[in-house]
Amino acid sequence: MELKDLFLTPLYLGLFYGLAFALRKRFTNPLTRKYFIPALSVKFLGAISLGLIYQFYYSGGDTFNYYNHTKVVYEALTTSSSTGIKILTAQPALDADMLKYSQQMVWYNSPTEYFVVQVASFFSILCFNTYTVIGLFFACLSFCGMWAMYTTFIRIYPLAYRKFAFAIFFLPSVFFWGSGLMKDSLCMGALGWAFYGFYHGLVIRKNIVTAIFLGTAGAFIIASVKVYILLSFIGPCMLWIFIENNNKIKSKFLRISLLPIFITAGLGAAYVGVTNITAGDAEYDLENIAERSRINQDYLMRRAVTRQGSLYDIGKLDGSIGSIVKVAPQAVVVTIFRPFLFEARNPIMLLSAMEASLFLFLTIKLFYKSGFLKSIKLIASEPILTFCFIFSIIFSIGVGVNSGNFGTLVRYKIPMMPFYLSALYIMQYRADSTTRSKKRKQLALR
């Protein structure tokens, strides 16, 4: 961070807030309006805090690596616009002028990291290449997608708007890691757009043009940055569509008879979609994913040891799909319910441990209160619950297997957290509604 951050950040904050207040009425209703500015504010807090912590606590890290690359692109753009545009668009045919800049960037030929640099470089043009302001732009981008996620959940369960607000916006890990100049900010916003686009475009078929645009944009960004999120998302989406169509069949006998066919078709469609997206990808092709998981686990665990990180052990991977299946239950537990409070080694991990404790408490409470079989039946009968839990489980297996230490896991798991907690709140809402209904019936009988 530099001196210009101190002068320009308050100015741009004022501009962002002015725009937010101007647009709030258009994108809110009387129930959600009070959350719009607070939700945006915690995103700004997360973006600024991320930079400060990486600078003064970690003494560097990925966010400043992205910014250092952005500096090079910004210099190219201000020195020679034609060369700068070539660098910004990452043209592979390098000429002498481009080499001067591309040689300074180790991520120039790394598409996922350089995509973040490209987005940051675009924003840098609008703010004199100021790190904190670029972070605020990322926070705004993330907020827009997450507000779309919030409005989608509210459309399904309007009366749970308070709890959805907490689950989506106010979890500390989510607004800290998902707000600044990082991949995670882009992914959180894009996931919100993809969720909005899927639900409005394919489930209820309303606002189709907007839904297609936002859904496609979200899927593109996720595929460009962290394609494994998209892989975890596609399967539950396809299953939701087929279950939704099955539920529209009036005949109960026919509906029950066709359910296995719809589920099989949904899983088949998901498999085709996943294989087409990852075909030829050295890291995420289904034929390579088990071996890549083993390599990632070994690398991250070695790095955690050298940095005195907090390791966890879910079992050894041998590069086969069978070994992933074997450790899958432990991967789910470690992702959703850990670190435990006694495993926290620093303030950031303590926040994650508190969130994990909340997840564990609500999960046990709801399944105990409703009964395990009734809870499973409820999840199977509600497409939104089916989607949220399956997405959370698939995603948790992926990041739980590949992380190896809590320091990495805390950041990797945030895309799952709003969906899992929202699903728990929906179950709580349903359980409370059932209890209230029983009480009304008992009073009526008296």
Explain what this protein looks like in three dimensions.
It contains 20 helices and no strands. Residues 273-282 have low confidence and may be disordered. The longest helix is centred in the C-terminal third of the chain and has 29 residues, at 417-445. By secondary structure, it is mostly helical. Helices cover 79% and strands 0% of the residues. The chain folds into three domains: 3-183, no CATH class; 226-280, no CATH class; 288-446, no CATH class. It has helices at residues 3-27, 33-56, 62-79, 81-88, 96-102, 111-126, 131-156, 161-169, 172-177, 183-203, 208-225, 227-247, 252-278, 289-306, 321-337, 347-370, 372-381, 383-403, 406-412, 417-445. Helix 1 runs antiparallel to helix 2.
How far apart are the first and last residues' alpha carbons, in Å?
Answer: 69 Å
**Count of helical regions:** 20
Total number of domains: 3
Radius of gyration: 23 Å
What is the typical, i.e. mean, pLDDT? 85
Helix content: over 70%
Q: Which key terms come to mind for this protein?
A:
446 residues, 3 domains, single chain, mainly alpha, 0% strand, globular
Short description:
The protein is mostly helical and 446 residues long. It is built from 20 helices and no strands.
Structural topology:
Elements (H helix, E strand, L loop, with lengths): L2 H25 L5 H24 L5 H18 L1 H8 L7 H7 L8 H16 L4 H26 L4 H9 L2 H6 L5 H21 L4 H18 L1 H21 L4 H27 L10 H18 L14 H17 L9 H24 L1 H10 L1 H21 L2 H7 L4 H29 L1
Helix pairs in contact: 1-2, 1-7, 2-7, 3-4, 3-6, 4-5, 7-8, 7-10, 8-20, 10-11, 10-12, 11-12, 12-13, 12-18, 14-18, 15-18, 16-17, 16-20, 17-18, 18-20
